[in-house]
Amino acid sequence: MSNPAQLASPARTTSSSLETTARLVRANELAAYADAWQQLGDGALFPNVAYEPWMALPALESCDTDKLYFLLVFDLEERELWGFFPLQLQSRCLHLPIRNLALWQHRHCYVTAPLLHAAHARQALDAFWRWFETNQLGAHVLDSNWLLADGPFHDLWVDFAMGRVALMLNDFPRALYKTGRALPAYLEQVVSRKSQNEFRRRKRRLAELGALECQSAETPEAVDAWLENFLALEAAGWKGEAGGRALAAYKPDAVYFRAITREAFRRGRALLSSLTLNGKPIAMRHTLLAGEGAYALRTTYDETYWKYSPGTLLELEVMQRLQDYGQVKWVDSCAAPRHILLNRIWLERRMIRRSLFSDGSPAGDLLLSVLPLIRWAGKLIRPRQTLSYLQVSKHYQGDRL
Amino acid sequence: MSATSPAVIKQAQRTAASVRLVSCDALRRYVPAWENLAASALEPNVFYEPWMLLPAIEHIRDCEKIEVMLISGPPGPDGEEPLWGLFPLDVQRKCLHLPMRTLALWQHRYCYLTVPLVHKDHVGQVIDAFWRWFENNSLGCRVLDTNYLLGEGPFHTAWADSLIGRYVLVLNEHPRGLQMRAPSFESYLANQLSKKRHHTLRRGLRHLEELGRVGYREVGFIAHVEDWIEQFLHLESAGWKGRDGGAIAIRKEDAAFFRDITYAGFAHGRARLLSLDLNGNPIAMKLVLTSEDGGHIFKIAYDERYSKYSPGVILELEDLERWHSGSKINWIDSCASARHSLYDLISNERRVIRRTLISNGSQRGDLFLSALPLLRWVSHRFRTKEAQL
């Protein structure tokens, strides 16, 4: 079979090389660009909430900013920001001493698609690759971390990746909810009638125990109360066990979570829902809104009520709420692949893929060509416990693991 | 890493799908069930429908050994096993010129998409049955070559889920033009072509009209199909495809295949035979094969003497306008190569095609896929272009 994509020359739009200026800035200079950056985030080809200034800047506080670089791509006169690429210089890649640049995946980042101006995405990506191919940081390898692998962003990304030596490390679907159909019709297609009756029965049983209410925080005071309730509820459950990932277990996480939630609320970007029984929350859901999308960032529930599935009941309520918003077209679950609850009630999937890309230098190409063999040998000697889709670049796992 | 994850095992216990390999000769008796399957496939693939695949098997033997895998569900009350999945497979002794027995989703030279037919209500069971069979297959193949599989959409996400934990090597991945229905033809054009480009095309059409009578024709009667076919074959071989050996008419068997599918497609109401005529002579022609609610552009040809008027683009725009005013077609896959000058211009969206090699989980398959990148690197560095892997 002919192979048009194989080792064809990387995408080059000849005109665009004259259309952009790229500037590499450090973390402490970023605040100066906050307005242009927020504007880019609002009109991005793919609305990645984790890379908007109000989510990214607070994340800087709990990580090593020495290693962070931010590539900003402007139009030629530097009047408008077209691309935002947060990068982390890493000295190791897959436990091997390979210097690489990774799309920065901070601890609360579930997708690493860079922000690209919707009308100038091609030029911005072109500028990025030209910069990367000749970068002065000594990195020959790009680690994409959890990059988006579908939709218009991916179509464009693939065009630029053609002809480069690359290595796909993992590729997984995660639950996505596409609004647009009435909820009953949606559920009809997703879960059996029996399960739907079961949901209703559990709700009735729960309501027999006391006043059952679904509410969302609408005032700053309510947000503060919601936050403390959430942190406490999460810490009380399985995530709070030793080695678990409850936010309250690690102070910087809790600080970050409070900060971004308050900021998101101030901007009208947070949907903080809870299911309460006699005023006491038994399930809580944190959702961030981003243009036509939304991110279901975190959820928790009271385990003493597990047999009533409070998490699922709240989820169904939140789905209805998001439908009513109108502007939200999709909700990203931010969940692991094969998530038991969300894979069941959410029909659609979003592809997330982590790959390594060479900068086109002989060293980068050779490295990525040898890596699979080294990994194979490594697995022979030391079988891995974690499945490959759970591996993120070392930084992401943070200092707790 | 174990090739079968717990989720797959759990599903395997539930499923009762059975797998059967059928040789090409025995295939005809499954045609009715096969047609039903094609109509309810998760992702339509016209190239794997009986009216296209059977002529391909008959005329185009560009592979070593074709086997068709049928995956059926548990027998119903009438004792019949419903057909849930169909995978045309090509058993190869070599993989990228290296001695490794490989199973490929069969892609003959006129096949532009290799998505297997999978019943939309039984996706998990079919994919799972395929992998359980492939992991211990009796053909001795350790690697699966997907050829031009679709890299997006519902089939892709289900397929990707089944690949978690397997050794996978992406050989190439590229976007190709996809035309998606817009609210109206006018809005499609406004978003797609700059004013300047649009003016240039209009001028081309005006100049063409100065040369004579310009007409757009879609074959509507079976009596006209023969003429259209001959004109197409002639037009195509007169152009650059005739010179570089890519024209259909160069090989007798290809021409026979083309005739068969054009007739069959027309008879089934699944082929649209279009042409742009100047004084009654075609100067641009194309064959579109349609599925449930979409279509694939199978072949285009145009008269090079008129290339400065862009007859190919004029025909495309004319056709876009026509199917926008109808109701049936929602998308058209260009089937073009990546960065195709015409279809990148005309198409408002892209669809990603991805070719991967996947190990069956055996030591040798895993090692082969792990060593392949290095072998390819060596080959690209030290060999001439022709001998590259």
Write a short abstract of this structure.
With 401 residues, chain A is of the alpha+beta class. Chain A has eleven helices and 14 strands.
Properties at a glance:
A: 401 residues; alpha+beta; Aminopeptidase; 14-stranded mixed sheet; 14 strands; globular; disordered N terminus; B: 389 residues; 2 domains
Explain how this protein is built.
The complex is a heterodimer of chains A (401) and B (389). Chain A is α+β, with helices and mostly antiparallel strands and 401 residues long. In chain A, 35% of the residues lie in helices and 24% in strands. Chain A folds into 2 domains: 206 residues, Aminopeptidase; 149 residues, Aminopeptidase, CATH 3.40.630.30. In chain A, strands 1, 2, 3, 4, 5, 6, 7, 8, 9, 10, 11, 12, 13 and 14 form a 14-stranded mixed sheet that branches. The longest helix of chain B is centred in the last third of the chain and has 20 residues. The two termini of chain B are 27 Å apart. Chain B has 2 domains: 203 residues, Aminopeptidase (3-Layer(aba) Sandwich), CATH 3.40.630.30; 148 residues, Aminopeptidase. Chain B has 389 residues and is α+β, with helices and mostly antiparallel strands. The interface between A and B is large, with 45 and 46 residues.
Beginning-to-end CA distance, first to last residue of chain B:
27 Å
Our count of domains of chain B comes out at 2
Number-wise, the strands of chain A total: 14
Overall spatial form of chain B: globular
What is the correct CATH architecture of the largest domain in chain B? 3-Layer(aba) Sandwich
Residue runs with pLDDT of under 50 for 5 or more positions of chain A: 1-16, 386-401
Q: Radius of gyration of chain B in whole Å, from Cα?
A: 22 Å
Mean pLDDT of chain A: 88
* Overall tally of domains of chain A: 2
Topology:
The complex is a heterodimer of chains A (401) and B (389).
Chain A: E1 20-25, H1 34-42, H2 53-60, E2 68-75, E3 81-90, E4 100-103, E5 115-116, H3 121-133, E6 141-143, E7 147-148, H4 151-161, E8 166-178, H5 183-190, H6 193-209, E9 212-216, H7 220-236, H8 251-266, E10 270-277, E11 280-290, E12 293-301, H9 310-325, E13 330-332, H10 342-345, E14 348-358, H11 362-381
Parallel strand pairs in A: 4-6, 12-13
Antiparallel strand pairs in A: 1-2, 2-3, 3-4, 3-5, 6-14, 7-14, 8-13, 8-14, 9-10, 10-11, 11-12
Chain B: H1 6-14, E1 18-23, H2 31-39, H3 50-59, E2 66-72, E3 83-95, E4 98-105, E5 117-118, H4 123-135, E6 143-145, E7 149-150, H5 153-163, E8 168-180, H6 185-192, H7 195-211, E9 214-218, H8 225-238, H9 240-243, H10 252-267, E10 271-278, E11 281-290, E12 294-302, H11 311-325, E13 331-333, H12 341-346, E14 349-359, H13 363-382
Parallel strand pairs in B: 4-6, 12-13
Antiparallel strand pairs in B: 1-2, 2-3, 3-4, 3-5, 6-14, 7-14, 8-13, 8-14, 9-10, 10-11, 11-12
